[in-house]
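Data availability (excerpt). The following record was deposited with the supplementary files.
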Amino acid sequence: MSLDELYKEVILDHYRTPRNRGRLDPHDVKLERNNPLCGDELELYLNFDGEDLVGIAFEGKGCSISMASASMMTEKVKGLDVKQARAMAESTKRMMAGEEPGDINELGDLVSLKGVVKYPVRIKCALLGWNTLLEGLDEVP
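Predicted structure:
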């Protein structure tokens, strides 16, 4: 399967059937962010147990890339500690910036977001959730 086919399949799957979508109660952190260029809107909910991210969910509306990326992000970082979640977000951002190829063993399905690099205007869409997560990790209670 080509990267383009993988990109389309994974993105559409997460867009049509988002994981961890909805309000998370209780939550320790709630952030609302948007991407005015595309009209994407995201609310991110985080719940911590010490340094562990034990709960994460999102609500929002926007393009398939922003919503699918948020869905994939919640699956990938849920259960990680703050340091691991931050490393995952930074690694994803570096891949999206074209600074690293993206390790499928580390990133799994997130590597499918690499296809967005061909469309620079859409990179902000794919990173909306990740940038919001990084802000939220700074607010660990």
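Summary of structural features: Residues 4 and 115 are 6 Å apart (CA to CA).
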